[in-house]
Write a structure and sequence with these properties.
The structure holds 2 protein chains of 2 kinds.
Chain A lengths: L1 E2 L6 E8 L2 E10 L4 H12 L5 E12 L1 H13 L5 E5 L6 H6 L7 E3 L2 H9 L1
Chain B lengths: L1 E3 L2 H18 L4 H21 L9 E9 L4 E8 L8 H4 L6 H8 L2 E7 L2 E8 L13
Antiparallel strand pairs in B: 1-2, 2-3, 3-5, 4-5
Classes of the chains: A alpha/beta, B alpha+beta.
Chain lengths: 120, 137
């Protein structure tokens, strides 16, 4: 799942680790690219995973539009599918904590931590 | 900077503004990130809400003022539309974080609406320029 919108670039790579769908996101998640992330999460959720991990480790800009997608994804995924977010740093984990999203979705500082939490 | 209030121009201004911050100021990564995100949210609101009731998007104006003696940076984002923000009960949980986010990120946030448009002003204190001698204010 990769595309180059006119003004913002966001690439999303999907892989499966055991029963977990992992989406590795790189670039910018803003008004222009947030829907792309929402679509990727929805597709991953339909593959009967135990959980979906959205790894924002290579994201250098995350706007509220992207945060909204994460909250909406929690509502839209089946209750049986866990959702974890990997974020660390001023551009991602800081704003997610500031607006209280860390309380809605599981926030982890590394992919290993997220996988451990979702497979525990 | 003047532009049409649309997501594409907001993204372009965001990149130009980040570059300007890097060139002229010595901000730590957290503050730099905070300033860029807050300015983005102000532009996103203009792009999303200002011209909802009319057929095509109108202008937004982005202006940054730095006061070296007070060490304050004030960024204003102005549009000439009427914000139409959905009822909190119907807009859903994925929306409505822009203003709380700006308030958390900036030292001072004001949003003033009038029939002429909406003006968002974001202020940061203790902002130091890279080289005061070479700057004109």
């Amino acid at each position: 799942v990769a595309s180059q919108p006119s003004a913002s670039s966001c690439t999303i790579e999907q892989k499966r680790i055991g029963e977990i769908e992992v989406l590795s996101v790189a670039g910018v998640v803003d008004m222009l690219t947030a829907a792309q992330l929402g679509d990727a999460i929805a597709v991953a959720g339909r593959k009967s995973p135990r959980g979906v991990v959205v790894d924002l480790g290579a994201v250098d800009f995350l706007a509220s539009a992207g945060m909204g997608i994460l909250v909406a994804a929690r509502d839209e995924l089946p209750a049986s599918v866990q959702l974890g977010v990997v974020a660390d740093g001023p551009a991602t984990s800081r704003p997610l904590k500031l607006v209280g999203i860390a309380e809605v979705v599981g926030l982890h500082s590394t992919l290993d931590d997220a996988l451990a939490a979702l497979t525990a | 900077m003047d532009a049409i209030a649309e997501p594409e121009s907001a993204a372009q201004i965001r990149r130009d503004f980040s570059e300007w911050l890097r060139r002229f100021f010595t901000l730590d990564p957290t503050k730099s990130s905070d300033v860029v995100l807050a300015v983005n949210e102000a532009m996103a609101n203009a792009a999303e809400f200002a011209y909802v009731t009319v057929e095509r998007s109108g202008p937004m104006h982005v202006r940054a003022d730095y006061d070296g003696s007070a060490a304050t940076l004030i960024v204003t984002v102005t549009d000439e539309g009427a914000w139409k923000i959905a009822d909190p009960a119907t807009k859903g949980p994925s929306r409505g974080r822009g203003i709380p986010l700006m308030q958390a990120l900036a030292d001072r946030t004001t949003v003033e609406s009038s029939p002429a448009g909406t003006r968002v002003s974001l202020q940061w204190n203790r902002v130091t320029a890279q080289d005061c001698g070479s700057r004109t204010t």
